[in-house]
């Protein structure tokens, strides 16, 4: 406990880190406040607050704003969908590939296109949300005025959420978009925990659930922290070539830490952002088509076989996809060659790139399978009698997102602490430059 208190004191003793944390908390509070502001013209008492299936899971990610028909009802989900589309285009369309290679100017143009596409997606998703989830008896103004005004307000709300996420990333702590999703999930956890305790007749069952949840959390933490170390050898370099005596700096050994779960939480977010689309689209033709009715029923139930099979498949695909676009073996091979380094027993250049790709392919497969298994655990937990609200935290997307975001944020905080300690030791003179040399 004393160590924990000391760590908190160290965190808030660093002015920049303290300001970033307070700034992040302020923006997260604004985001939570907006989730309680209901759309104009809606009677909250007429809304169905008990959203089940996939809509209930989506409502968990949005912190309840989905079921409350708030101005942030769609949150940043349209932005995530737009990002997926742009990343897919960057893999297949030469125009977007050229923009990625243009550096900062290219990234700015891609961000602008992503924002415009977010508005387009929000208009479509907002229309589907208003017509499919808000009952007509809850609308207290003229529908001809309500629908266009609400679509505009929801679009503005999504853009504002996107702005909040970008500001948290820029001036706060952690990844802003992921932080918004995490705070929505955490906000519903106390209620889910209370409901689970209330429905159980025996305390031993609740203790067993907590023990199982503990081991699942530990497994997710291990997955996020696991790395595959690729050994790297730096060649000896001449330090003092002039004079009678030449010295060579001893070749150093190091390694490249390739994360087993390099994609982190993004495959889960990408897959989840697409999973509610089939049921919303099928709902349009559910009254006239048996196939559409089947799709609507199965993809609205997060415990169905069709839903979980599709969800797991999307996670497998997105894990490989996101790993491929974030880790470039060719670039890593070039960087090693430029720094006069090499992988032992592997020739520099193409063979090094192929070797890194070979390792990535083999560590990504178990990572993708593990992510998919953990993501569908809520369905099994629900079958074993765990309440629907609490089962969403019993593994699954909610847990993976929370663990991933929390670990990423803690790593950033730790970096600030290490930097502060390093600066303090440099100022105090406790660190002196050392060079391990060999005389030849």
UniProtKB/TrEMBL annotation:
TM helices/strands, residue ranges: 21-39, 71-96, 116-134, 146-165, 172-192, 204-227, 262-285, 305-327, 368-387, 393-410
Main location: membrane
Locations listed in the record: Cell membrane; Membrane
Top-level lineage group: Bacteria
Annotated signal peptide: none
Key words of the record: Cell membrane, Membrane, Protein transport, Translocation, Transmembrane, Transmembrane helix, Transport
One Pfam family cited in the UniProt record for this chain: SecY
Bilayer topology: Multi-pass membrane protein
Oligomeric and partner information: Component of the Sec protein translocase complex. Heterotrimer consisting of SecY, SecE and SecG subunits. The heterotrimers can form oligomers, although 1 heterotrimer is thought to be able to translocate proteins. Interacts with the ribosome. Interacts with SecDF, and other proteins may be involved. Interacts with SecA.
Its biological purpose: The central subunit of the protein translocation channel SecYEG. Consists of two halves formed by TMs 1-5 and 6-10. These two domains form a lateral gate at the front which open onto the bilayer between TMs 2 and 7, and are clamped together by SecE at the back. The channel is closed by both a pore ring composed of hydrophobic SecY resides and a short helix (helix 2A) on the extracellular side of the membrane which forms a plug. The plug probably moves laterally to allow the channel to open. The ring and the pore may move independently.
NCBIfam families with a match to the protein in the record: 3a0501s007
Similarity-based family: Belongs to the SecY/SEC61-alpha family.
The protein, known as: Protein translocase subunit SecY
Organism of this sequence: Flammeovirga pacifica
Taxonomic lineage of the native organism: Bacteria, Pseudomonadati, Bacteroidota, Cytophagia, Cytophagales
């Amino acid at each position: 406990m004393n160590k924990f208190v000391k760590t908190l004191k160290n965190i808030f003793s660093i002015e920049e880190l303290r300001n970033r944390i307070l700034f992040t908390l302020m923006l997260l509070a604004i985001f939570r406040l907006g989730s309680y502001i209901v759309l104009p013209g809606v009677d909250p008492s007429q809304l169905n607050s008990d959203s089940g299936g996939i809509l209930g899971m989506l409502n968990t990610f949005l912190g309840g704003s989905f079921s409350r028909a708030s101005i942030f009802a769609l949150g940043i989900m349209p932005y995530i969908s737009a990002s997926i589309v742009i990343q897919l285009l960057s893999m297949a369309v030469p125009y977007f590939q050229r923009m990625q290679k243009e550096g900062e100017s290219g990234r700015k143009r891609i961000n602008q296109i992503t924002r415009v596409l977010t508005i387009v997606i929000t208009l479509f998703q907002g229309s589907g949300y208003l017509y499919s989830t808000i009952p007509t008896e809850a609308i207290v103004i003229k529908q001809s005025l309500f629908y266009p005004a609400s679509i505009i307000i929801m679009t503005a709300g999504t853009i504002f959420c996107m702005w909040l996420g970008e500001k948290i990333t820029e001036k706060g702590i952690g990844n802003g978009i992921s932080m918004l999703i995490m705070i929505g999930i955490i906000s519903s956890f106390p209620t889910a925990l209370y409901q689970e305790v209330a429905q159980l007749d025996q305390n031993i069952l609740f203790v067993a659930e907590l023990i199982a949840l503990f081991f699942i959390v530990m497994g997710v933490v291990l997955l996020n922290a696991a790395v595959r170390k690729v050994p790297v050898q730096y060649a000896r370099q001449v330090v003092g070539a002039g004079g009678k005596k030449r010295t060579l700096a001893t070749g150093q050994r190091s390694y490249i830490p390739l994360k087993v779960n390099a994609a982190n939480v993004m495959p889960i977010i990408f897959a989840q952002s697409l999973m509610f689309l089939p049921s919303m689209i099928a709902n349009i033709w559910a009254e006239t088509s048996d196939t559409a009715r089947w799709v609507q029923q199965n993809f609205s139930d997060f415990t169905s076989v069709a839903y979980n099979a599709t969800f797991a498949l999307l996670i497998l695909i997105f894990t490989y996809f996101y790993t491929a676009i974030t880790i470039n073996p060719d670039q890593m091979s070039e960087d090693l060659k430029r720094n006069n380094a090499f992988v032992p027993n592997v020739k520099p250049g193409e063979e090094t790139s192929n070797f890194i790709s070979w390792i990535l392919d083999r560590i990504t497969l178990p990572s993708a399978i593990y992510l998919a298994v953990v993501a569908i655990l809520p369905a099994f937990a629900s079958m074993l009698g765990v309440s629907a609200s609490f089962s969403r935290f019993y593994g699954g997307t909610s847990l993976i997102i929370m663990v991933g975001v929390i670990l990423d944020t803690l790593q950033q905080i730790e970096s600030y602490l290490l930097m502060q300690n390093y600066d303090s030791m440099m100022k105090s003179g406790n660190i002196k430059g050392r060079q391990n040399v060999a005389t030849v």
